[in-house]
C-alpha cells in the first residue's frame, strides 16, 4: 500500500518537503497534501479540512501550524474536490478517503503515533474515522458533531445538506449513518475539544453536545473553550491554542509510549 504518485509543490520549508499525492480509494484517484520532515518521523498529524469544494480548501500554512521537525502532516482533499475524482458525499463514502490515506501512512511508518485534527466540517469526518484507524488522539476544532443539529441551526446550509445527504425525515437513515457519537465509549481514544463561544459557523452547542456524550460514557477528554473567539481565532489566541494542542499530543503519547 502506497501513494500512486507524488508531485513536489512550490512550498518552501526548511525542515519539510511538501508534495501533492494521489492515492487510490474505491477505484478513484484522490488527492492530498503531504509534508514530510527531513528528519525521522516521530509523529503523524492528519488535518481534516472544513467546507466543500473550493471553500475551506487545504492550505499549507494551516498544516504547518501542527508540525515540528519530526512531524509528518497529511491532509486529504476529499473526493470530488481540488482535482480528486468522484463526488463528495459529505461524511459518506468520502470517509474512506481519510481512512485509506491514514492506513498508507501507518504502513509506511509503523508504530508512529497518529493524531487527527478535524476543523469545522472536518470535525465530524474525524469523529467518524478516528476509532477505525486507532488514532492516538483526536482534536476537534470548531467542529460539527451532529448533522441533525447542523440542519436545524444553519438554515442557509439546508439546501446543501438536502442535496448531499437528504431530508432529515425522508432520508433519516442517511443521517443516522452519519451519527458520529453512537460508537464512542470509554474505550475510545481521548478527545480534545476546541471551540470559540462566538462561533457563528458552528455553534458552540455542538461542542457542548459532544462533551455531554463523552462525560456520560466516561471517555477521556479535555476542552479549550475560548471566550470572544469565532470560527477562526484571532492570531494571539490561535498561537496560545496551538501550544496547548502540541502539549496535548505530547501528553497522549507519553501515556501510551
UniProtKB/TrEMBL annotation:
Residues 62-254 form the Peptidase S9 prolyl oligopeptidase catalytic domain. This is S9 family peptidase. Coiled coil: none annotated. InterPro entries: AB_hydrolase_fold (IPR029058), Peptidase_S9_cat (IPR001375).
Amino acid at each position: 500500500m502506497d501513494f500512486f504518485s507524488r508531485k513536489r509543490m512550490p512550498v518552501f520549508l526548511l525542515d519539510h518537503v511538501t508534495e501533492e499525492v494521489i492515492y487510490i480509494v474505491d477505484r478513484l484517484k484522490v488527492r492530498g497534501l503531504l509534508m514530510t520532515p527531513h528528519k525521522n518521523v516521530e509523529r503523524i498529524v492528519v488535518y481534516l479540512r472544513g467546507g466543500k469544494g473550493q471553500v475551506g480548501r487545504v492550505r499549507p500554512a494551516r498544516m504547518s501550524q501542527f508540525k515540528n521537525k519530526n512531524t509528518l502532516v497529511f491532509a486529504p482533499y476529499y473526493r470530488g474536490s481540488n482535482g480528486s475524482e468522484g463526488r463528495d458525499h459529505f461524511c459518506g463514502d468520502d470517509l474512506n478517503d481519510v481512512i485509506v490515506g491514514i492506513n498508507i501512512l501507518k504502513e509506511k511508518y509503523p508504530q508512529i503515533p497518529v493524531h487527527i485534527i478535524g476543523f469545522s466540517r472536518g470535525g465530524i469526518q474525524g469523529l467518524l474515522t478516528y476509532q477505525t484507524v486507532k488514532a492516538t488522539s483526536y482534536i476537534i476544532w470548531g467542529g460539527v458533531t451532529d448533522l441533525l443539529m447542523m440542519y436545524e441551526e444553519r438554515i442557509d446550509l439546508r439546501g446543501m445538506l438536502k442535496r448531499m445527504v437528504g431530508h432529515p425525515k425522508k432520508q433519516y437513515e442517511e443521517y443516522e449513518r452519519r451519527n458520529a457519537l453512537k460508537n464512542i465509549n470509554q474505550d475510545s481514544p481521548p478527545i480534545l475539544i476546541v471551540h470559540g463561544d462566538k462561533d457563528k459557523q458552528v455553534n458552540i452547542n455542538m461542542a457542548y453536545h459532544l462533551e455531554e456524550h463523552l462525560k456520560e460514557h466516561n471517555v477521556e477528554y479535555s476542552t479549550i473553550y475560548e471566550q470572544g473567539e469565532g470560527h477562526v481565532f484571532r492570531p494571539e489566541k490561535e498561537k496560545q491554542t496551538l501550544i496547548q494542542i502540541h502539549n496535548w499530543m505530547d501528553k497522549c503519547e507519553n501515556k501510551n509510549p
